[in-house]
UniProtKB/TrEMBL annotation, chain A:
It is a peripheral membrane protein. Keywords: ATP-binding, Cell membrane, Membrane, Nucleotide-binding, Repeat, Sugar transport, Translocase, Transport. This is ABC transporter ATP-binding protein. InterPro entries: AAA+_ATPase, ABC_carbohydrate_import_ATPase, ABC_transporter-like_ATP-bd, ABC_transporter-like_CS, P-loop_NTPase. GO terms for molecular function: ATP binding; ATP hydrolysis activity. It comes from Ancylobacter defluvii. CDD domains: ABC_Carb_Monos_I (cd03216), ABC_Carb_Monos_II (cd03215). It is found in: Cell membrane. One of its GO terms (cellular component) is plasma membrane. Belongs to the ABC transporter superfamily. It holds the Pfam family ABC_tran. Its main location: membrane.
From TrEMBL, chain B:
It comes from the Bacteria. InterPro entries: ABC_transp_permease. This is ABC transporter permease. It comes from Ancylobacter defluvii. The keyword Membrane applies. It is found in: Cell membrane. Keywords: Cell inner membrane, Cell membrane, Membrane, Transmembrane, Transmembrane helix, Transport. GO terms for molecular function: transmembrane transporter activity. Its main location: membrane.
Length: 505, 331
């Protein structure tokens, strides 16, 4: 790494403006063969724009993109791929109704007049084996969970025999085991001389993978470093531009009276016989693997899925069949899928903010002024940074989308808030803001359930932790007993064996 | 950056160019018509064009809500024929008991609205409760309504009793302050539709559902009920259009309301409502209806092109409208 190889793909003094607003201010950035270059920064710092420019999807307003020392000969994503520059997008580029195999060979199908299905399937299987993936080549993308789709997306990039591979937060939706596989593939590609760009909000991944780190802030490069020159703390500080103390709020408060009691709660077909309680002013964490039934449990509680079992709100039995009934009982759910279930991406901030509480904004005629006033308040309260307030929500950065979704969920002033993956794909600065919002909720006597795959988040936020496994409650931890090892044991199902054979611990 | 966002948008903002496109096309057509024929702007011709637009217009306003919420209704043309058939048969049957008079006609109107409501409810329930694609449901009911009216007419024509027809005629041919009743009704429906789409919860929910029905569901919107309402509303408006249409000819047959569904959908699309849903523009639909009628009218008045090519020209306009709108939104 010490020898400065000539860059394969390079940006020189690249600027990009959308309308009157300049997003990138003179970026120099280079990817070299056999190197992993991590690009990190907060949401909205300009990472996505840089990746889109490198991948040929958008052109810079000024400056140059150079491939092999010459101006890049491509003007579209397809041409860039033909030139060996492949992008793995955060929003998957897979056709949901085609099979895994059909997607992987899309546009480069084997066979002359007729398709050579067998060769394509064999090729797909080989790629999936390489990735240790259990996905079948015949499976339809629509039927696959997000993490499997990500693996297919990676397989597709491998099949393209990329010289330059640009990865936009590939690990965000993967389980730990899948992340390990991904890392092995990245190591392999690096050894083969591929130039890699990696982005992630998980700084420990950057430390482990990156030979070179570039830190962005507000559309400019603020720090360049080689492997080992920058600690995770240093990266976070460079990204945010200020010292980050502990990003988690101080553990608080004594929980109040009982807010919710759930007994023998089942959400077919996965969740079975779950019982727990929730107090006022408490943050209850729910941990477990993806697919353990956490989201299904939450959606069952707020009436999004048919469920059975007993629920008491403040001691009174309640039945909830729809989201409206849940809202009437002071319960709100913030989905993990903000782009497909949380926000209307082609509508404005105002229309999104008020959608679930629209009856409050006038009947029979809606009052735009009141909606605008609510938006003004939400923008201030939740620090939503939007270049224009009448813009489409789809053009906001992920962090600002999440803050808007939080504002929308809390607009009804619910007593019980269930937040599913509060900070997925969000930078560290916004994360700490969202943690502060959650803490403030609890401090005001509201009850918060946080569902998260992020272990530090569960540890940092929760007063109590429920762990789910295979649709059942695997255990509950409180106070001093909340620790990473204790949670992992419950998640993995090794706790019972350990209990039976204490000598093994 | 956030400072700019903190300021509420002030003042009236002009709609974008793509929104004004249909309006410009309409103005162009009016200028062209006036240029080609001196009679074009005469009160008689204007009234004629508007009154004929009114039927499709009322239906198209209802269609705007269905399409905005991600649905579609192909059955409206045959639904109109069916409603007209049932209404005329009912009035003829009640004539001996009630005699010729205003009550009979009012009852006929109530029956038309009730049949429209039931027909819309059928479509809506099949879409929301049975979960069948709107295209399939309304393709089916389109065939059913059409065949029912042909059956009721025994393959021929159902005619309203002559005396009743004389009494009913003014509902199409007369009006208030020189404006024909159908035109008034269309204007009221259009204004109410525009207000409902822009300023009520119903309109906002329609757009939300069409934009992403999962998000709407997660946001405590009663998705099925709103969808059902759009079909019921459309059924009622088809009933209203039929009430205005029956006095014009005084009869119904298997070919009544033929291809109205396509004209209504075309008007909605020309007006700038997205066919995939999520964005509705009622005033655009009104402009779309007028564009379609004016083309017809100009071809009939001027000798430039054979009126037989009317359909071809309308087809070009529809495709062109969508291409222009897409071109501008992509830019």
């Amino acid at each position: 790494m010490s020898t400065e190889a000539a860059p394969v793909l390079e940006l020189r003094d690249v600027r990009k403006s959308f309308g009157p607003i300049e997003i990138l201010h003179g970026i120099d950035f280079a990817l070299r063969a056999g190197e992993v270059h991590a690009l990190i920064g907060e949401n909205g710092a300009g990472k996505s724009t840089i990746m889109k420019i490198l991948g040929g999807f958008i052109a810079p307003t000024s400056g140059e993109v150079r491939l092999d020392g010459r101006p890049a000969p491509y003007a579209s994503g397809a041409e860039a791929e033909a030139a060996g520059v492949v992008v793995i997008h955060q929003e998957f580029n897979l056709a949901p109704d085609l099979t895994v195999s059909e997607n992987i060979w899309l546009g480069r199908e084997l066979g002359r007049v007729f398709l050579d299905h067998r060769a394509m399937r064999a090729g797909t299987q080989a790629l999936l084996d390489q990735l240790d993936s259990h996905v079948r080549p015949e499976a339809r993308i629509r039927d696959l969970p997000v993490s499997d789709r990500q693996m297919v997306e990676i397989a597709k990039a491998l099949a393209r025999k990329a010289r330059v591979l640009i990865m936009d937060e590939p690990s965000a939706v993967l389980t730990n085991r899948e992340v390990e596989v991904l890392f092995r593939q990245i190591d392999r590609l690096r050894a083969q001389g591929v130039a890699l760009l990696y982005t992630s909000h998980r700084l420990e991944e950057v430390t482990r993978l990156a030979d070179r780190v570039t830190v962005l802030r507000d559309g400019a490069v603020v720090r360049r470093a080689l492997r080992g020159e920058l600690t995770e703390d240093g990266m976070a500080t460079a990204m945010v531009g200020r010292d980050l103390q502990d990003i988690y709020p101080a553990k608080r408060h004594h929980a109040g009276e009982l807010a919710l009691e759930v007994r023998g709660f089942s959400v077919p077909p996965l969740v079975e016989d779950v019982s727990f309680t929730l107090k006022r002013g408490e943050v209850l964490g729910i941990s477990g693997l993806v697919g353990s039934g956490r989201t299904e449990l939450a959606e069952g509680l707020v009436g999004l899925r048919p469920a059975s079992g007993e629920m008491r709100r403040g001691g009174v039995p309640v039945r909830i069949h729809t989201v409206r009934e849940a809202a009437a009982h002071g319960m709100a759910y913030l989905t993990e899928d903000r782009k497909e279930r949380g926000l209307l991406l082609d509508k404005t901030l105002r229309e999104n903010l008020t959608l679930s509480t629209l009856p409050r904004f006038g009947a029979p005629f809606l009052s735009t002024e009141r909606e605008e006033a609510a938006l003004t308040r939400a923008i201030a309260d939740f620090d939503i940074r939007a270049p224009r307030r009448d813009m489409r929500v789809g053009n906001l950065s992920g962090g600002n989308q999440q803050k808007l979704l939080l504002a929308k969920t809390l607009l009804s002033d619910p007593e019980i808030v269930i937040i599913d993956e509060p900070t997925r794909g969000i930078d560290v600065g916004t994360k700490s803001q969202i943690y502060a919002f959650i803490d403030a909720l609890a401090a005001r006597g509201k009850s918060v359930i946080v569902i998260s795959s992020d272990m530090p988040e569960i540890l940092g936020l929760s007063d109590r932790v429920l762990v789910m496994r295979h649709g059942r409650l695997a255990g509950e931890l409180a106070g001093e007993r909340i620790s990473e090892t204790a949670i992992v044991r419950l998640v993995m199902g090794t706790a019972e064996e350990a209990a039976k054979e204490p000598t093994h611990v | 950056m956030s400072d700019a966002a903190l300021r509420p948008a002030t003042g009236f903002r002009l709609p974008g160019l793509s929104a004004l496109g249909p309006l410009l096309a309409l103005i162009l057509l009016i200028v062209l018509g006036a240029f080609l024929n001196d009679n074009f702007l005469s009160q008689g011709n204007v009234t004629n064009v508007l009154a004929r637009s009114a039927f499709i217009g009322m239906i198209a306003v209802g269609m705007t809500f269905v399409i905005t919420s991600g649905g579609l209704d192909l059955s409206v043309g045959s639904m109109a024929a069916f409603i007209a058939g049932v209404m005329i048969l009912a009035m003829n049957a009640l004539l001996p008991a009630m005699g010729v008079g205003v009550p009979l006609i009012l009852l006929g109107m109530a029956i038309a609205l009730a049949v429209g409501l039931l027909a819309g409810l059928t479509n809506g329930l099949l879409v929301t409760r049975a979960g069948i694609e709107p295209f399939i449901v309304t393709l089916g009911t389109m065939g059913i309504f059409r065949s029912l009216v042909t059956w009721l007419a025994d393959g021929g024509t159902i005619s309203l009793d002559f005396a009743v027809r004389q009494l009913y005629r003014p509902v199409y041919y007369s009006g208030l302050f020189g404006v024909a009743w159908p035109i008034l009704a269309f204007a009221l429906v259009a204004i109410a539709g525009q207000v409902a789409m822009r300023h009520t919860r119903f309109g906002r929910y329609c757009e939300a559902i069409g934009s992403n029905d999962k998000v709407a569901l997660y946001s405590a919107v009663n998705v099925d009920r709103i969808r059902l309402l759009t079909y019921v509303l459309l059924g009622l408006l088809v009933g209203l259009a039929t009430i205005m249409y029956v006095p014009r000819l005084g009869s119904a047959s298997g070919s009544t309301g033929m291809l109205w569904e396509l004209e209504a959908i075309a008007a909605v699309i020309i007006g700038g409502t997205a066919l995939k849903g999520g964005y509705g523009r009622v005033w655009g639909t009104v402009v779309g209806v007028l564009i379609l009628s004016l083309i017809d009218n100009i071809l009939n008045l001027a000798d430039l092109v054979s009126p037989y090519l009317n359909g071809a020209i309308q087809g070009v306009i529809i495709v062109l409208a969508v291409v222009l709108q897409r071109g501008k939104s992509a830019a």
